[in-house]
C-alpha cells in the first residue's frame, strides 16, 4: 500500500504541474494575441485605423500629438499632407512653414513648402524657398529639378535648361535626374 500511495502523490504533483503549464501557456497565447491586435491597430502616427481612414479624425489626433511635441516636423508634414488632400492649401502651407521654422535645415520640408507655394500660385515664394535649399546644397537634385520645372512652366526655357542640366548631372539615376533629362529632351536641350 505504501507504493500505491507514493505513486498517487507523484501523480497529483504531475497533474498539478501539467495544469500550471497549460494555464501559463494559455495566458501567454492570450497576451500574444492581444498584443498583436493592439500593435496592428495603431498606425505609424499613433492613430487608430479609423483615424487614418478619416482625415479630420487623423488631423485631430495629430493636433493632440503636436501639443505634446510642439514643432515636431513629421507630425507637421503629415498634417500638411492631409490638409492638401482636403484642398486646404493655406492650412497646409501654415503647417509646412511651422515645420521649416522648427527645422530650417530640413530639405524635404522646405521642398514641400516650395511645392505647396507653387500649387497655391505663389511662384515667387516657391522659387525663394527652393533656392534656400541650393544655398546650402548646390547639387540638391530635387531642388534643381523643381526650379527647372517652375521656369519651364513660366516659359523661361533657358533658365529651365540651366537648372535641368545641373539636375541631370547631379541626379544620376534619381527620379528627379531622370525627369530633368526628359525635360531637357522636350525643350530640345542636351
Describe this entry's structure for a reader.
This protein has 190 residues and is mainly alpha-helical. The protein starts with a helix and ends with a helix. Residues 28-51 have low confidence and may be disordered. Helix 7 packs antiparallel against helix 8 and helix 8 (141-153) runs parallel beside helix 10. It has 10 helices and no strands. Among the domains are: 51-122, Tetratricopeptide repeat domain (Serine Threonine Protein Phosphatase 5, Tetratricopeptide repeat, Alpha Horseshoe), CATH 1.25.40; 138-190, no CATH class. The protein is extended and about 85 Å long. 81% of the residues lie in helices and 0% in strands.
Mean pLDDT over all positions: 81
Say what oligomer this is.
single chain
- Provide the CATH top-level class of the domain at 51-122: Mainly Alpha
Radius of gyration: 29 Å
**For this structure, what is the CATH homologous superfamily of the domain at 51-122?**
Tetratricopeptide repeat domain
Number of DSSP helices?
10
Secondary structure class reads mainly alpha
Low-confidence stretches: 28-51
Helix share bin: over 70%
Could you state the order of secondary-structure elements as H and E? HHHHHHHHHH
What's the CATH topology name of the domain at 51-122?
A: Serine Threonine Protein Phosphatase 5, Tetratricopeptide repeat
Could you give the count of β-strands? 0
Inertia-based shape: extended
CATH architecture of the domain at 51-122: Alpha Horseshoe
Strand content: under 5%
Distance between the termini: 103 Å
Give a short account of the largest sheet: none
Amino acid at each position: 500500500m505504501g507504493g500505491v500511495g507514493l505513486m498517487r502523490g507523484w501523480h497529483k504533483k504531475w497533474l498539478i504541474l501539467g495544469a500550471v503549464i497549460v494555464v501559463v501557456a494559455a495566458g501567454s497565447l492570450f497576451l500574444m494575441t492581444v498584443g498583436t491586435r493592439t500593435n496592428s491597430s495603431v498606425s505609424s502616427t499613433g492613430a487608430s485605423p479609423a483615424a487614418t481612414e478619416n482625415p479630420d479624425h487623423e488631423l485631430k489626433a495629430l493636433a493632440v500629438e503636436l501639443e505634446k511635441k510642439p514643432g515636431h516636423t513629421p507630425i507637421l508634414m503629415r498634417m500638411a499632407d492631409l490638409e492638401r488632400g482636403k484642398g486646404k492649401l493655406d492650412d497646409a502651407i501654415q503647417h509646412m512653414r511651422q515645420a521649416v521654422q522648427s527645422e530650417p535645415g530640413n530639405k524635404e520640408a522646405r521642398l514641400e513648402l516650395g511645392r505647396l507655394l507653387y500649387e497655391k500660385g505663389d511662384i515667387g515664394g516657391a522659387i525663394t524657398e527652393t533656392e534656400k535649399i541650393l544655398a546650402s546644397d548646390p547639387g540638391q537634385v530635387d531642388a534643381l529639378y523643381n526650379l527647372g520645372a517652375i521656369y519651364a512652366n513660366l516659359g523661361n526655357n533657358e533658365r529651365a535648361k540651366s537648372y535641368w542640366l545641373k539636375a541631370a548631372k547631379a541626379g544620376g539615376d534619381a527620379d528627379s535626374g531622370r525627369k530633368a533629362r526628359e525635360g531637357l529632351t522636350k525643350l530640345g536641350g542636351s
